Amino acid sequence: MNxxxxxxxxxxxxxxxxxxxxxxxxxxxxxxQLRQLLIVSDRAxxxxxxxxLEKQWQRSQDAAYKGRKSPLKALVIILNTWCAEGRRSxxxxxxxxxxESDLAVLMQQASLDREIYSMLREYIIPQ
Length: 127
Hints:
Layout: H1 3-15, H2 19-26, H3 31-44, H4 47-60, H5 71-85, H6 88-97, H7 100-107, H8 114-120
């Protein structure tokens, strides 16, 4: 997932105070993604999410650290939850920040809510 979409997802999660979900997304991030998030964390995130980000950064410094799953897989769960909660504007904010290649991968996820699948069509340019 590109950095803009990742940042927007975390901002929305922070705004909704869904810190456990934000931490699950952070756990899927590569070291470079975490480093870039640290640069903007003071301006973009709540203090609690910034603390979680710093802890995840420390864990990533461990040689045994490996991202276990794709941020896109974690994103599917979050988007489905937001859709069920009626937070469609948050879904659209994240989708608008995603690159077309990520949108195409997201569209292939079988567990994606049908409503989100229909929203994706607005962001993918037909070829």
